[in-house]
Amino acid sequence: MTVDLAVVPVAGRGTRLLPLTKSQPKEMLPVGRKPVVQYVVEELARCGIGRLIFVTGPGKTAIENHFDFDAELVAHLRETGKEELLAELAFEGQPVEYFYTRQRRQLGLGHAVLCAQPVVDNQPFVVALGDSIIGLHAESQVVRSMIDQFERARADAVIAFEEVPREDVTHYGIAKPRRQTGDVFELDDLVEKPDVAEAPSTLAVAARYVFSPAIFECLKRTPPGKGEEIQLTDAIRLLIQQGGKVLGAVLPPGQRRFDIGNFESYFQAFVEFALADPDDGLALRRHLERLLAPDGSRPCC
Ligand code: G1P
Among candidates 223, 243, 44, which has minimal Cα distance to 157? Predict the structure, then answer.
């Protein structure tokens, strides 16, 4: 049986995006026409995920509401002659079953994944971070190919990586590859947010993972690490140390990660998605070209 279960941690407070995230989840921020988490769910559904567990926390009910069927809204659109907008709600009918559990204490990403254990139990599963989109339009098949890799290699974990500039390694889990053959490599070690001088490479964990349930025992043995949080990266490290087969898969070109965790990358993601919008992208492009034109050609208002 293939992997059809995903855990999507969405409990983080999003403090790097305050005040935007004071009373709304960062996973519900708009990127182009949709909230971030809708892209994540659509991507997973396209990759064959049929059961999805959100690990939520305080202030995250908007996510649950977003994936509910909204009969009242449907009726309202029909009554007011706006049937053409019903297509915008098609995502409600995706063949995905939703489960929700809560991380009752903010103890880190590793702890959030461990909160899903009672639901996941003894099955392999995907972890997809709810604040990162892979590729434009949620068309990425990265998770599908990671699942195939996981099954073919009988691995204990397959993790997505992307190259980042050396000065950025301090923001990510960084790989120490054993040997690299093409875009898939075995991991020798993994370090969470290392200093630039100590980073073993510039390959950064890119928000998508496939795990065997063995990760749960490692998470239980993981003490608080960076930022005093229980880090998923440290549990993967234990998995490697106990002889687990852990593979890295580099994101293919055109399948970049869009990070909604800080303002710089959020702004970039929004602009890229808006520019790619089939209806309004061209008008935005023209507007930006005018805004960015040398002073002489800029319109006065
Ligand atoms: C988390 C992980 C980190 C990973 C990053 C992006 O960090 O701990 O290893 O590189 O997501 O996938 P966060 O962005 O939550 O600080």
Answer: 243
